[in-house]
Structure formats: C-alpha cells, structure tokens
C-alpha cells in the first residue's frame, strides 16, 4: 500500500526554485538568442533582460508568438528586448512552429492625380485594409521588391526631381511586424529595371540600367545577417527589364532584353550560388507583363498573349499554358498577387465591373477559376505576400 | 488529510478534530486499497518539493512527457516516489486536476478552464507555466501560454510594461505612442 505521506503542511507558497529550474532544464531549451538585426541596427542591447520577468525566454517567446499579428507594432513598443525579438528571424520561425503564421497581402497602388504611390495591406480575407507608412526617400520607379524573413525590401530604382533623373543604390526595409521602415546598406551599383529575388535567405540583384542609363551585367547579393551587399559573378552580357525568381537554391533571370540579342531575350540565365556560376537555358518567356511564384512554379503573363497564363515548372524546365476565362469584362492586362495558395489577377485598368480573377492550382478540374472580392484601392503596381 | 474522490489529490482540511481526520484517513485507506485492487494498472508516485507524495495514474502520467520519458528510458524503480524538486504540491495538485479534466471532462471543459484560470494570480500563472514546461505537458503548457497571450493582446505598451513589470528602455517616445499601423521610420 503506497503511503500518502504528505506531512501536515501549510500550503503557503514556498519559495519555488524556478530560476534553477530554468537552468537545470537547459537541454530542453533551445538557446538561440540571436538577434543579429538588432546588433547591426539597434542601439546597445546587452541581451541580459528577460522578455517576461520570471520566465525563461524560451517560454516567453512561445507566449509572444501566439499573439495575433495585428498586435505586433504595439508589442514592439514595450522594450528593446521585445522589439529585438519581434524583428528577429527567430520570431517568424517560432510563429510558424506554433501554427500562427498569418498571411497578409501588400499591394503598391498608384496614387490618383499626382499623389504618390502607396502600399496598402490587407489580411488573408482582403479585410482590414490599411495603408503602410510612406516609403522613405524620393518617389521612385524601376525599383526591385523582395520579401525576406517577414520583411519587405525595396531596392534601388530611379527618381525624377525637376526633370533630373537620378539612379539610386538605396535599400529600404519595411518590417511587417513592427510596421516601420528602416534603411539598409546601399547596393554596390545603382540600378533600375533589374532582376531580383530571394534564394536561400539571400537577396540577389542582377543587371538593369545603371547610373548613366547604361545596361548592366553586374550582379550582387545581400546577406541580411551582416547587412552587406557583395558583388557576384556578372552575367555574360548586359540584361535589363528582366525579372528574377528563386527555385531549389538557384536564381532564375528571365525576360527583358539583352545586348546580344535583337529584340527580347528568350534566354534564361540561371545562377548557382554553390558553384558561383551562371548557365543558360533557351526556353524562357518574353515580354512578361506579370509574374509570380506559387508552389514552386512560376506564373507569367506574356504581352503577346494576355489571355493565357504561362506556367513554368523548374523541375523539368517545361512550360504549360492555361487560358484565362472570359469574364464579360474587356479587361486585358493584369498584375498578379498571391494569397492563400491562389493566384489573384488584378486588372491594370480601373474598371468597376471587373471582379478579381482567382486561379487555384489545387482546385478540382473545372473549378480552378473563381472570382475574389479582393481588389486594390487603385491601380496595382506590384504586390507581395508576407507571412508572419 | 483527505483523498478526494478522484483518489489523486492530497488536500488539507483545516480545523477538523483529529479523530475525524483519522477516521477519514482510515476510510480512505480502505477505499484506496479497493481501488488498488480493482485497478491492475500500476500507479506512479511523485514527490514534490515540499515532500508531499502524489499517486498518479498512468493516463495522467502519460501527459507528463518528462516523467514518462524518465520512466521509459532510465528504468526508474517505480516503487520509490520520483522526486520533482521544482514543483510544489499545490501546483502538482493543480496540474493533475487539469490533466484529469482535460481527459475526462468532455462536456464543460471550457467552463473548467475558465474557473481554473480565474483561481490563479499572475505569479501562480507563471509558476504553473514553468511547471508545465518542466514536466512537458503540452495541453497545459499551450493553455497557459495562450492565457499569457490574452494578457498581451490588444493592450498598450504601457499596460504591458506595468503588468509584467518590464523596464521601459525605449527612448523613442514617438514609437512608444505610435498607434498600430501608423508607424514611422525607425530611428535605428
């Protein structure tokens, strides 16, 4: 007979030795307190202060990661430790582990009548539409946009002030959790109309036009952990007006023009970061007016045929064409958005009767095409999707 | 000392004459004997930081992944109570309560959870969260994490700082008071 040996004790709270507990339990805690971003961008932070006093950080991190995304800006104002955690890569990872990732759609819309362009954001249902704080720096065109670790990078581009055009190498980062912009290191080469993409946590920028509107073959890579752009092997020939995407650890540059071809380049330049070299494929698409990556496939729309989606599968480098249904609207010309694993087709014309077309690659045959209520408040210049 | 109907907890009843207590303990001993006889399954005993010993049935123990793995991997002598030097009897009793309800209370679990949470002050909530983390009880850990999350949600930075006793080291007044989604360029 097992004894119930509880001595008659008052259950007034004894001093719990939880600080010990936290220490004894190290093997079950992941000790990854890296906040590289804060080291490069923040003021002094000795990292000694706990996220929640009395709790080990691993537990606190889980608690913070469970808060809905719309609360992050306020949470970022609590203290430096919180701010540092919320802007860290680890936070995004923790959210993903907890199944808390929320997908938000960011659309850059052209302002009406002289107003500058403006980023707007909506949640995965197209609700809670808000405007982002204004992009810093002069109004630009021809810049590159990439999403990296829950952040939006807006790179380079050109601006015209009083008739003088200047090409920029500046890079700005929008932190989607803290709802704020900050400036990152400049690129090595000022450029516009270039290709850019994220591959394995690094951002690549390739080609474009340079400061004197000369076409560029140069390329560079950005490492967010050290906030630094480093030149990589150049393209074999200058290329501009092109776009980039990343598949299976490789960078693909397509579209636009190249100085060695007449007209538009059908070549695909593929960069292998492991081997630091470029190779070529011949079956690219030309004159691409919209592109987006969804489920490891590239969706393009070519200028010559805006009634079809061209879908590139990098596994076998094949293309597949899917007709875009007629909707009774005269709309041709689209910009793409991605939300919840589906492709959204925003009209390039502000036509009230147009309902945003939605293509679901996983839907049952015959019902891939639907319409969606999600539409930008103005003309869509570009859009990105950020999970955090 | 009273063993509750669940046969799991040891609670204190104050102000009872000793003979009543003794009688009750005797009764309960008999009860327990019957239970032990009825149940073939072997219960495991856990000893808290304040030297109280709890008998825990396997279905509850299963939730305590840490204890379970101790038993499985280290071939611990289960005739001796397993010491849990980081857990008080009050918290262990709460934990067992929670695990029990979580397993067997199918009808008004939410109601129980509400009551459970209400009975905890901020400090106790922390202790229990740590205990759940230590014992690796996923259901309780997730539940308590979520209740912390609820404390943070929709609150201003000032409230959060006050509530959790966090030092304000943000020097930018602007960002402190900036409402959500009207942010500005970071100073840093």
List keywords for this structure.
heterodimer; A: 388 residues; mainly beta; Neuraminidase; 3 domains; four-stranded antiparallel sheet; 6 helices; 26 strands; 11% helix; B: 188 residues; mainly alpha; Potassium Channel Kv1.1, Chain A; 2 domains; three-stranded mixed sheet; two-stranded antiparallel ribbon; 55% helix; disordered N terminus; disordered C terminus
Compact summary:
Chain A is mostly beta strands. Chain A has six helices and 26 strands.
Question: Could you say which overall geometry of chain A the principal axes of the C-alpha atoms support?
Answer: globular
Q: Trace the largest sheet of chain A across and list its strands.
A: 3-2-1-26
- Helix count of chain B, per DSSP? 9
Number of domains of chain A: 3
Task: Determine the strand fraction of chain A and express it as a percent band.
Answer: 35-45%
Structural class of the secondary elements of chain B?
A: mainly alpha
Q: What does this entry look like structurally?
A:
- The complex is a heterodimer of chains A (about 400) and B (about 190).
- Chain A has six helices and 26 strands.
- Chain A is mostly beta strands and about 400 residues long.
- Chain A has three domains: about 20-95, no CATH class; about 100-130 and about 290-380, no CATH class; about 135-285, 6 Propeller (Neuraminidase), CATH 2.120.10.
- The longest helix of chain A is centred in the first third of the chain and has 9 residues, at about 55-65.
- By secondary structure, chain B is mostly helical.
- Chain B folds into two domains: about 1-40, no CATH class; about 45-170, Potassium Channel Kv1.1, Chain A, CATH 3.30.710.
- In chain B, the strands form two sheets. Chain B has a three-stranded mixed sheet with strand order 4-3-5. Chain B has a two-stranded antiparallel ribbon with strand order 1-2.
- In chain B, helix 4 (about 90-105) packs across helix 6 (about 120-135).
- Chain B is elongated and about 60 Å long.
- At the A-B interface, helix 1, helix 3, helix 4, helix 5 and strand 7 of A face helix 1, helix 4, helix 6, helix 7 and helix 8 of B.
- Chain B: Pathway: Protein modification; protein ubiquitination.
């Amino acid at each position: 007979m097992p004894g119930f040996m509880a001595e008659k004790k008052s259950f007034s709270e004894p001093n719990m030795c939880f600080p010990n507990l936290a220490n004894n339990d190290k093997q079950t805690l992941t000790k990854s307190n890296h906040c590289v971003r804060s080291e490069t961008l923040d003021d002094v932070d000795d990292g000694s202060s706990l996220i929640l006093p009395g709790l080990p950080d691993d537990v606190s991190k889980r608690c913070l990661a469970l808060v809905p995304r719309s609360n992050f800006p306020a949470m970022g104002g609590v203290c430096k430790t919180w701010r540092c955690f919320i802007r860290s890569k680890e936070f995004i990872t923790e959210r993903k582990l907890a199944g808390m990732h929320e997908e938000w759609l960011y659309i850059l819309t052209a302002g009406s009548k002289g107003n500058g362009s403006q980023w707007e954001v909506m949640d995965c249902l197209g609700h809670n539409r808000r405007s982002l704080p204004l992009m810093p720096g002069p109004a630009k065109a021809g810049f590159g946009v990439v999403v990296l670790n829950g952040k939006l990078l807006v790179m380079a581009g050109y601006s015209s002030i009083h008739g003088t055009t200047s090409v920029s190498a500046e890079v700005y980062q929008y932190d989607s959790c803290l709802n704020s912009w900050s400036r990152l290191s400049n690129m090595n080469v000022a450029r516009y109309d270039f290709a850019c993409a994220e591959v394995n946590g690094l951002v690549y920028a390739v080609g474009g036009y340079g400061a004197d509107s000369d076409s560029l073959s140069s390329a560079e890579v950005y490492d967010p952990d050290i906030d630094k752009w480093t030149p990589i092997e150049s393209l074999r020939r200058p290329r501009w007006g092109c776009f980039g995407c990343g598949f299976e650890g490789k960078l693909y540059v397509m579209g636009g023009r190249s100085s060695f071809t007449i007209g538009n380049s059908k070549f695909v330049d593929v960069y292998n970061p492991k081997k630091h070299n470029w190779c070529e494929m011949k079956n690219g698409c030309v004159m691409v007016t919209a592109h987006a990556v969804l489920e490891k496939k590239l969706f393009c729309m070519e200028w010559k045929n805006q009634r079809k989606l061209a879908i590139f599968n990098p596994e076998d480098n094949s293309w597949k064409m899917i007709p875009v249904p007629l909707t009774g609207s005269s709309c041709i010309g689209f910009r793409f958005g991605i939300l919840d694993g589906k492709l959204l087709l925003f009209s390039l014309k502000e036509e009230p009767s147009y309902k945003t077309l939605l293509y679901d690659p996983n839907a049952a045959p015959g019902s891939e095409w639907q319409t969606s209520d999600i539409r930008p408040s103005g003309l869509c210049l570009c859009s990105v999707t950020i999970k955090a | 000392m009273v063993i509750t109907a669940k046969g799991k907890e040891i609670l204190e009843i104050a102000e009872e004459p000793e003979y009543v207590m003794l009688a009750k303990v005797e009764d309960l001993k008999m009860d327990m004997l019957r239970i032990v006889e009825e149940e073939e399954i072997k219960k495991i005993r856990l000893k808290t930081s304040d030297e109280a010993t709890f008998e825990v049935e396997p279905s509850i123990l299963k939730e305590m992944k840490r204890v379970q793995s101790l038993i499985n991997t280290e071939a611990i002598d289960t005739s001796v109570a397993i010491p849990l030097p980081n857990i008080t009897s009050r918290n262990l009793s709460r934990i067992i309560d929670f695990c029990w309800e979580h397993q067997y209370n199918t009808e008004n679990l939410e109601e129980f959870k509400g009551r459970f949470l209400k009975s905890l002050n901020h400090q106790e909530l922390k202790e229990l969260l740590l205990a759940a983390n230590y014992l690796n009880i996923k259901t309780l850990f997730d539940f308590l994490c979520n209740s912390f999350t609820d404390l943070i949600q929709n609150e201003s930075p000032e409230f959060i700082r006050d509530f959790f006793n966090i030092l304000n080291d943000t020097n930018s007044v602007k960002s402190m008071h900036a409402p959500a989604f009207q942010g500005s360029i970071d100073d840093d």
